[in-house]
Amino acid sequence: MTERLIVTGVDLDAAAAERIRRRAEMVIGMPERSTERLVLLSAFLFAACYLVWAAERAQLLTFWVWT
Amino acid sequence: VEQDAVERLRAGDPAAFDAIYTHFRPRVYGFLWRLARDPEVARDLVQDTFVALARNATRLEPDTRLAAWLFTVARNAWRSHRRWAMLDAGRLVVLNDDLAIPTQMRAPDESVDAARQRARLERAIFALPEAAREVLLLVAVEGLSHEEAAKILGVTREAARQRLRRARADLSRQLERLEEKEKKP
Fold first, then answer.
1. Is B30–A9 a contact, with Cβ atoms under 8 angstroms apart?
2. ipTM, 2 decimals?
3. Does residue B148 surpass a pLDDT of 80?
């Protein structure tokens, strides 16, 4: 059993506590927007690279590249 | 009770979030206040911690231990803040023994002597190195197990135990030093 240190409780003032509660409640279950954006951007870049690669493989880009 | 709260939180129940916030807010704030030694920084980090809980609410594991989860996020938020704050010398907290302890630290029915002892304890905690302070806050103040503290700190259980032992010894030395200082005229 660990000996506990008894310190006096501290807390935020009521206004700050309420402000934080409201802000947090607004985003329950919502992932970070920045993460969403990063995922979308990565997917877009991946798709673009794949299209270029596929087009090049099908020799559709030969005209662009050699002329 | 905790698992029930986690289940309801996973379902996106705002009432469950409220109950968890009300219960854990003073603990998380106290932890961050004593870690950051700055009430404004602690307030911002409390917000980051509970916003992270809200955002991740529906993705929590059913067996999530809320205290461990919250203190892990709070500690990471503090470490992230500290990295940025190190670039800004203006944010550094200058510590000394006359550090102001907020007035709410003294309970109304507390004797002057008890209040003095408590203030001395707070100053001694504040004066500890950060590694000692965080393990002491998690185990001795918050009552987390050595295993939970070790996970939060990213060290082995034995390392956490050793760190705690050293922290307690450091705390005793700080308390003695402060007591001696108070005795001097």
1. yes
2. 0.81
3. yes
